[in-house]
């Protein structure tokens, strides 16, 4: 169970792996939403057994840290710009981020397959030109879209992903203003300057060779 829409400062904590966790999470969702909204109750639409990543911070660690395996797809101007890790990354300490980086690198092919599997739905859906789609993975490895959010939510907690968004937005706005369209390599160079590292080398960002057109065919 997830309720990241409650916009907690720690959305990665809002998952329930057993009945007690689910009940506690539901209670917390209602408590938070009642501050601003009239909530009569919650309806369970579907229960998903989502994959998590377990991070052992020391050899033989019996209490590994568990974080979500969730990916955020960023669509800019009708094109799939990138997939980035949507969970704690920059906020983690170095000794925890290192094993998480290894786990994310090992899942690169899984993410790439998920992106391609979901593209047909994105191509045919009546969606805005700019948005992000949050994707999680059930235990059998199948990707599932959890929710859609506005573009400003892109690059959450991953500096290199945010840098790529800023660079791509700048290039897009310049092109709209009449300047020549920036090549993809130039956008990546600009993002590297902003982030202080190559986006292509970040374990928390997955790129296709070029942004994929997700605009709706007429």
Automatic annotation (TrEMBL):
Residues in ATP-grasp domain copies: 20-161
InterPro entries found in the cross-reference section: R2K_3
Species whose genome carries this gene: Sorangium cellulosum
Protein name in the entry: ATP-grasp domain-containing protein
Pfam families hit by this protein: R2K_3
Organism domain of life: Bacteria
């Amino acid at each position: 169970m997830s309720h990241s829409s409650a916009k907690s400062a720690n959305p990665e904590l809002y998952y329930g792996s057993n009945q007690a966790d689910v009940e506690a999470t539901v209670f917390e969702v209602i408590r938070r939403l009642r501050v601003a909204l009239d909530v009569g109750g919650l309806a369970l639409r579907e229960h998903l057994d989502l994959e998590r990543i377990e991070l052992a911070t020391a050899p033989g660690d019996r209490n590994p840290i568990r974080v979500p395996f969730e990916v955020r797809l960023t669509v800019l101007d009708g094109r799939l710009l990138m997939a980035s890790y949507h969970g704690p990354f920059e906020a983690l300490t170095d000794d925890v981020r290192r094993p998480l980086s290894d786990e994310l690198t090992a899942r690169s092919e899984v993410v790439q397959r998920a992106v391609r599997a979901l593209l047909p739905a994105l191509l045919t859906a009546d969606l805005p030109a700019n948005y992000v789609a949050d994707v999680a993975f059930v235990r059998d490895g199948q990707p599932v879209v959890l929710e859609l959010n506005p573009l400003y939510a892109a690059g959450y907690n991953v500096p290199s992903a945010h840098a790529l968004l800023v660079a791509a937005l700048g290039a897009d706005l310049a092109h709209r203003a009449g300047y020549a369209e920036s090549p993809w390599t130039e956008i990546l160079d600009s993002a590297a300057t902003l982030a202080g590292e190559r986006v292509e080398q970040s374990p928390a960002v997955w790129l296709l060779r070029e942004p994929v057109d997700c605009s709706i065919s007429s």
